[in-house]
């Protein structure tokens, strides 16, 4: 019996040690210098979480995130229960409205606390009046935010206030930036990258961030070559390949 | 004797420690932390022509948000949504639940339209969480929705009932089709074209449309 208890005690200690390794894992979350867009920054936009800047946030109702406006549809159907969509009004450096973006995303199936972190994949459609439409494909790793703010706040069951700056860029462009594809108007034929930097001021464990500003750094230039596949492309013949009728 | 027993305890503890750590790390790596339930994809393969897939949006029930248009149709939805006039003047933002041809919700669709002089362009994101996202763009045809409804007999402020079929895509791909700009995950290497058709049967006094939006994508692997 004592032998068994010793073995179990060892296993428990091993599990605690592994959790500590995962928690303090230096290979996930932000590391090193902040990610910057590839090339010269051509646009700087910002937005915050106020209803004027983020007028729509829709999800299933199960996420710890405010829904806005109150009457917005719940994304309750099983295949889209993990999806969050929103509308963002972006302002330029002169604080004039630069455009509006729809952002739709979900936690990535590639999320792995040991090797890749808490990955969130999203796609943006930008409308920039007078310039055109553009798409953004973005992957972010929110592990640092979870570790430094969200989990401690949830464990203590109390709101967090302070200053936490994060740039969770994790691809798919090289260097970790998001990829931008110009699609119409003056943006047609332009490609580039985007990096989002967030400054969190307050977090409520029931509804998520309550005070946050975001800065978007964009670099756009004429496309030089055919676009390459996204790095997270699934190989041909993947088990997840669609089934044809 | 005590020394030998201590050595056994030490070995057992070490084996437990290593086993517990390895099992926890294995679980952390192999546990499926995120699952997006996958619905069977209904794809028709055209001989030497690519893969054809149909998506449907039912109006008004599948609307998530409609930013509305300044002085035009349709009405903003839901109550409380307000986009800046600078955006509404030139553009139109819509988000919908997206269904497959069998009517099952499989994703979320985003549609933005942007006027540039007399021309208008539109873009779509078809976000299917289990499969990836498709990004689409087209030049608008048919003079826009409000013009088509007006020609079909709609009078401002009145309800309308009828049958209106409107193909919104008018290029840039031959045959009045839009183009696939790109995609993620399963669609990351896809290119191709699409058609967007609206079949409307009515509109109430508040500007809420009844009908369906049909998206037919034709994609091939490779750019």
Question: In oligomeric terms, what are we looking at?
Answer: heterodimer
> Number of domains in the coordinates of chain A?
1
Binned, the helix content of chain B reads 10-25%
Number of helices of chain A: 2
Task: Using the 3D structure, state the CATH architecture of chain A.
Answer: Beta Barrel
Structural class of chain B: alpha+beta
Radius of gyration of chain B (Å)? 26 Å
From N to C, what is the helix and strand string of chain B?
HEEEHEEEEHEEEE
Gross morphology of chain B is elongated
The averaged pLDDT of chain A comes out at 84
Order of helices and strands of chain A: HEEEEEEHEEEE
3D structure, described in words:
- The complex is a heterodimer of chains A (245) and B (223).
- Chain A has 245 residues and is mainly β.
- Chain A has one domain: AOC barrel-like (Beta Barrel), CATH 2.40.480.
- Helices cover 15% and strands 37% of the residues of chain A.
- In chain A, strands 1, 2, 3, 4, 5, 6, 7, 8, 9 and 10 form a ten-stranded antiparallel sheet that branches.
- Chain A is globular and about 75 Å long.
- With 223 residues, chain B is of the alpha+beta class.
- Helix content of chain B is 19%, strand content 44%.
- Chain B has an eight-stranded antiparallel beta barrel.
- Chain B starts with a helix and ends with a strand.
- In chain B, 44% of the residues are buried.
- Classes of the chains: A mainly beta (245), B alpha+beta (223).
- Chains A and B meet through α1, β3, β4, β5 and β6 of A and α1, β1, β3, α2 and β4 of B.
Summary, kept brief:
The complex is a heterodimer of chains A (245) and B (223). Chain A has 245 residues and is mainly β.
Looking at this protein, list some descriptive labels.
heterodimer; A: 245 residues; mainly beta; AOC barrel-like; ten-stranded antiparallel β-sheet; globular; disordered C terminus; B: 223 residues; alpha+beta; eight-stranded antiparallel β-barrel; 11 strands; elongated
């Amino acid at each position: 019996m004592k032998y068994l208890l010793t073995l179990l005690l060892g296993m428990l200690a091993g599990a605690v040690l592994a959790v500590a390794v995962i928690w303090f894992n230096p290979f996930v979350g932000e590391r090193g210098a902040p990610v910057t867009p590839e090339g010269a920054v051509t646009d700087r936009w910002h937005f915050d979480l106020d209803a004027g800047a983020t007028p729509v946030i829709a999800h299933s109702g199960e996420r710890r995130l405010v829904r806005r406006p109150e009457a917005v549809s719940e994304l309750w159907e099983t295949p889209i229960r993990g999806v969050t969509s929103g509308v963002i009004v972006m302002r330029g450096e002169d604080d004039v409205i630069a455009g509006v973006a729809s952002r739709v995303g979900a936690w990535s199936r590639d999320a792995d606390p040991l090797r890749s972190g808490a990955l969130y994949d999203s796609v943006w459609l930008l409308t920039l009046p007078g310039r055109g439409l553009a798409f953004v494909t973005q992957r972010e790793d929110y592990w640092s935010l979870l570790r430094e703010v969200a989990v401690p706040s949830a464990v203590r069951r109390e709101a967090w206030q302070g200053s936490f700056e994060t740039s969770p860029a994790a691809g798919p462009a090289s260097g970790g930036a998001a990829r931008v594809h110009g699609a119409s108007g003056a943006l047609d034929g332009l490609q580039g990258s985007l990096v989002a930097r967030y400054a969190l001021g307050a977090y409520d464990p029931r509804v998520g961030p309550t005070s946050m500003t975001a800065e978007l750094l964009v670099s756009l230039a004429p496309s030089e070559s055919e676009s390459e596949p996204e790095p997270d492309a699934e190989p041909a013949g993947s088990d997840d390949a669609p089934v044809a009728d | 004797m005590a020394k030998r027993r201590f050595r056994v305890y030490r070995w057992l503890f070490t084996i437990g420690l290593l086993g517990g750590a390895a099992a926890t790390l294995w679980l952390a790596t192999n546990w499926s932390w995120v699952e997006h339930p996958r619905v069977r994809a209904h794809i028709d393969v055209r001989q030497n022509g690519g893969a054809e897939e149909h998506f449907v949006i039912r109006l008004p029930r599948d609307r998530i948000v409609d930013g509305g248009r300044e002085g035009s149709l349709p009405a903003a939805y839901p109550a409380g949504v307000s986009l800046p006039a600078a955006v509404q003047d030139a553009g139109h933002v819509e988000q919908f639940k997206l269904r497959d041809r069998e009517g099952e919700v499989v994703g979320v669709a985003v549609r933005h339209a942007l006027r540039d002089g007399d021309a208008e362009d539109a873009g779509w994101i078809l976000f299917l969480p289990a499969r990836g996202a498709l990004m689409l763009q087209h030049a608008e045809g048919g003079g826009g929705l409000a013009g088509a409804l007006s020609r079909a007999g709609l009078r401002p402020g009145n309800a309308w009932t009828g049958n209106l079929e409107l193909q919104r895509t008018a290029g840039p791909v031959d045959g009045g089709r839009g183009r696939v700009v790109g995609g993620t995950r399963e669609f990351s290497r896809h290119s191709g074209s699409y058609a967007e058709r609206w079949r409307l049967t009515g509109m109430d006094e508040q500007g809420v449309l009844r009908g369906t939006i049909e998206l037919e994508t034709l994609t091939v692997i490779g750019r």
